[in-house]
Design goal:
Layout: H1 2-36, H2 42-73, H3 77-94, H4 98-103, H5 105-113, H6 120-142, H7 144-148
Helix pairs in contact: 1-2, 2-3, 2-5, 2-6, 5-6
Length: 149
């Protein structure tokens, strides 16, 4: 069943997204422990673990529409790659503007996780933006079974 296969791909992408960010945290922690062990505190380590974990979850939500498009397009991998590159490249410019930083999905992840300094309003807008990404993904995936019949 195509829907079950796509759901499995989405779950796997979520798990890998979180695991990659936790691996990045582990590497960063080990380097800091070797270079500056005396500067590390439990609070600092836990705060950064939270940031990396939320980044992993948030990045998955932000890119879920791209994953859904790939599942929907069938063999549109190159187009999805181009779209993903443009999406991530645009994030560089979005992060330079305070207004765009608040609404662009990839940068809202950093507002939510605490990587960027953000007020509660910016965090709430970020949560809404990521939920819109999830809803958009679900709407894209909704027609999968109908296309195969």
């Amino acid at each position: 069943d195509e829907v079950k296969l796509t759901l499995a791909k989405m779950i796997l992408a979520f798990v890998f997204s979180v695991l990659i960010y936790l691996l990045l945290f582990a590497i960063t922690f080990l380097v800091e422990a070797v270079l500056h062990l005396e500067a590390l505190s439990v609070g600092l380590v836990l705060e950064n673990l939270k940031i990396y974990f939320l980044d992993g979850v948030g990045v998955f939500f932000a890119i879920s529409p791209i994953i859904a498009l790939v599942a929907r397009m069938k063999k549109g991998y190159w187009l999805a790659l181009v779209f993903a590159e443009i999406y991530s490249f645009a994030g560089l410019f979005a992060s330079m503007s305070q207004q765009l930083k608040t609404v662009y999905p990839m940068t809202t992840v950093f507002n939510i996780s605490g990587y960027y300094n953000a007020n509660m309003f910016q965090v709430l807008i970020g949560v809404v933006i990521l939920m819109v990404c999830v809803i958009l993904s679900l709407l894209i995936l909704k027609g999968l079974n109908r296309k195969t019949k």
